[in-house]
Amino acid sequence: MVFATLAQQTWIALMLLVSGFALWRGKGPERAIALANLAAWILTPLAYRNSLMDPQWGVFIVDGMFMLLLVWFAATTDRNWLLFAAAFQLLAVITHVAIAVDPGVRTLAYFRGLVIWSYLVLGALAVGAWNMHRERLAHRA
After folding, report:
1. Average pLDDT over residues 38-49
2. Whole-model pTM above 0.70?
């Protein structure tokens, strides 16, 4: 959990904001994914190795487990946002595979790709939590 750069601080703020909103206003799937997202955020630096040229197998495992959870929720619930979140997380896993298969994949492209997919998963969670919030408001009216 690094807080050194503005990009890292922005990610942390958005991730905590969206996850907090999902925990507050979401239902079961949104809350579970918010907690899993927080757990993945905590586990990723613990799994990270300092070698930038080698595949990050520990991070790959964290991302793969998160993807499996998203796929399971997408297959067992009626939440459309989970299809998008699972697809974006699958792209993150494929990005890990790309650097394992082809060392020519540049480190910068590898990490930027993972950041992009993470933001898109977070965006899908935000949409899902917002939809549940709107649904609750509509039922009250």
Report:
1. 92
2. yes
